[in-house]
Amino acid sequence: MSDAGARLEVVGGKAAGQSLFVTDELIIGRFVEGPGELGGDEEISRSHARLSVDASGLCAIEDLGSTNGTYVNGLRISAPQTLSEGDTIELGGTTVVVQELPKSAGPDVTAPRDVPPPEPPPVSQPPAAAPVAPSPEPTPASPPPAEPAPAEAAPAPTASPAAPSPPAPVASHAEPANEPVSSLVLNVHVDVEARQVLLTVGDSETLRLVFEAGRWQVATSQST
């Protein structure tokens, strides 16, 4: 990595193999004398782009309103673009690759010498123990209270004779035995187009329902 400036190498176009050194500023264009004319590339504008290196060592490229534009890594730029090593720049029919960038000036992180070690913090003294108050003398215990005399037991209540239970009702007649229930067959026939429903109960009676006036009504009931 260079300390003085940035170095870019032309890898495609009329100036292929040429190196571009940027220490402060380099203008690229057809009417520029020196390496900025890129070997007479007819596809670049008169003032196509500007390469610059600032005081902190950052290298950037800016398009100067060229006709064909300036591209960094395949993307056309519309504002100054900071460059990194390995970036590819396309201007007209020329391709340039960033090879070296200046070292950025960083803060001095060297530790100072002959610095005395910090003094240890003072050790705090433990607080003095508080005086212990003497315990009070025990007072004589008072005699236990006298137990109350037992109360006389109340006489137990006499049990009243139990009332006789009423006699169970006598059934007047025996309950009838469960008779078998015959099965019921219901047939339903729905006629959507005629808006009617036929209900047949078993084989004897048919009930016809018709949909009139917004509700279902019984039309006829006939036996079969």
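Next protein, fold it too.
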Amino acid sequence: MRLGGKIFLTCAVVIVVLGGVSALSLHAIGRLVSVNREVATQAVPALGVSSAVRDHLYALGRLESRYLVLRDARYAALWDERVARMSVDLARLREYTTSARTGALLEEVVRDFEAYRRVVGREHALLRTGQRDAALALAESDGRDLIARMDAGVEAWAAARHAAMLAAQADAARVERRTWAWVLGALGAAVALGLAGAAWIAYRLTRSLRVLSAATQQLGAGVFHEPIAVRGRDEVADLGIAFNTMAARLRRVDEMKEEFFATISHELRSPLTSVREAANLLADGVPGALNPKQQRLVGIVASSCDRLLRLVNQILELSRLRAGMQPIRHDRVDLDRLAERAVEELRPRAEEARVVLERERIGGAFVVTGDEDRLMQVLVNLLANAVRFTDGGGRVVLRVIDAGHEVEIQVEDTGCGIPTPALPYIFEWYRQAHQDARGTGLGLAIVRSAVEAHGGRITVESQEGKGSRFTVLLPRGGESR
């Protein structure tokens, strides 16, 4: 999956979770609004109407008794008016009936109300025939019983309606609690998914970029050999594939360059040797005596041939070292003794340059397994460079240190130092720290290759104007290639 698709998928999952949270929230809000609407428009008015109906019942009983006792027509009119109002309120109670139980209770109240009206009608009929005591007895018995039953029925209807309202509120509270739990859980899941997705993408990017960065540094230092592992099919993987292709092509270019220089150097060595020998024969006067001008020209030819042959031999030697074709002997070599020989060899050059050349030793075990000639070449090259770049009155120290499983060699000088931009490339072919320096730029490359052929490593520390220190670490034995 492409990187854009991964980012989109992560965001889409978070958006879907948040959408689900929103839907749950809206459902819960709708449920709460419905319950509140029912309470506001149904339950509360229903309880108010039921209370009014009960008030009507008490009023009807009082008006009925007063009419029978006082036979005042105004009480009969008030009773009729109250009956009409109660009929309207009973009809309203039908609208607020929401269950079978409340419906059955209301129907029973209506039937008792109709029976009560008939009983009152009988009472009025008895009263008109002068049977007042019978009418009062009927009112006290059947009339009061029916009013009590209606009151109990309305009270039961109100209690059922109130219980339904409480149940709805309890259900709404449960929905609210459940919704809050869902919302918080979903929000936590969305945050966790978002953070996990972001962390995964960031880790994927930074891991690949770290690998690419390390490989780029190795490629710049010339030690990158194996291609980086490519995972996935996104843009970062494409970048890794492109980097591997570039590195392979650069390695091939380096190989072609080395092959080219090795071939040219090999082909040049034979004719250069012939030219040098011919110049020597001319200088010795074998073909005949030469005048001074001819002698000077022949000397220039011989000197140029020697310089070219040294360059050709260095290129061939470096090519063989890098290819692992240069034979390396595995003898016991005392680096302290070898350092003494190197110092004595370079001492005349140091005295000529008015540079103090010293040797130091730290520890007591300096024996390694290696090629004495190659190690001598390493010491001589490092000392020669140190003397060359140290002004008169300066100091060069060759230090041999017992470092446990390794032997450390330090060549330290008080010369002009190496510019900081040149430090990472100082051991590469044809790289020189100072553009005006005489030399081929192959000496340090040969030193590094010889050290690595012994399984060791070389580093450099330098500060312009204060000097440089080259450090060689060699294993004691059995680790050379």
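About the second fold: The chain has a mean pLDDT of 79.
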